[in-house]
Amino acid sequence: MEMELRGYSRPIRPGVTRVGWIGTGVMGAAMAGRILAAGYSLTVYARTASKAADLASAGADLVSSAADAAAGADVVFTMVGHPSDVRSVVLDPVSGVLSTLQAGGVLVDHTSSHPALAREIASSARARGCWAVDAPVSGGDVGAREGKLAIFAGGKMESYSGLLLFGRSLGRPLRWASQGAGRAARLQIRSPWPEVFWD
C-alpha cells in the first residue's frame, strides 16, 4: 500500500540538508563536487573508492554501499552508467537506496535510463513514503564541471520545488510534470549509454 505524500517541506539549506551521492565517474564526481562546494554535507558511495578520493579530501564522507549513503540522508542523488546499475543501487532490497532512505526523503536520479524504470522507482519510493525525481542531464563532463548542465526533470516537482536549489548548482533544470517524462525527453537527444558515468 502506497503512503500518502503531502509535499516536501524539509529545509533545503547548506549545512542543514544531508545529501547522499552515488556514482563518481567523470560526470558524477564533478557534479558531487559542486554540491559539496555549495556547502552541503555529502556522503558518497563509489564503486571504485579511489575515484572519490578528491571528494573525501574536500570533506565528503565515503561509505561502502548505496544503502549507507542513503541512511540518514534527506536527499540522495544517483549518477551511474546503465539502467541495470540504477536498478541495483536503488532497488536492491539489502544494499539499495530505498532500503534505508527515510520516509519523506527524496531520490534524484541523474542517470540517462528508461522512462519505465523511472516510473517503477517512483512507485517503489512512494510505497516507502519517499519522493523520486528522474532528472537525466546533458552537457558532458565540461558542463558537469562548470555547472552548466541541462537537467531534464520529471516528477511532481511542485511538491518539493526547493530541490531546484540543487539544480541551480549543477546547471539549468528543465521541468516535465509526469514521472518518466524527463527521461523520455532526454532520450530524444541521447547517444548510447556512456561508459564514463559510472565508476
From TrEMBL:
Residues 18-161 form the 6-phosphogluconate dehydrogenase NADP-binding domain. It comes from the Eukaryota. InterPro entries: 6PGDH_NADP-bd, NAD(P)-bd_dom_sf. One of its GO terms (molecular function) is NADP binding. This is 6-phosphogluconate dehydrogenase NADP-binding domain-containing protein. The lineage of its organism: Eukaryota, Viridiplantae, Streptophyta, Embryophyta, Tracheophyta.
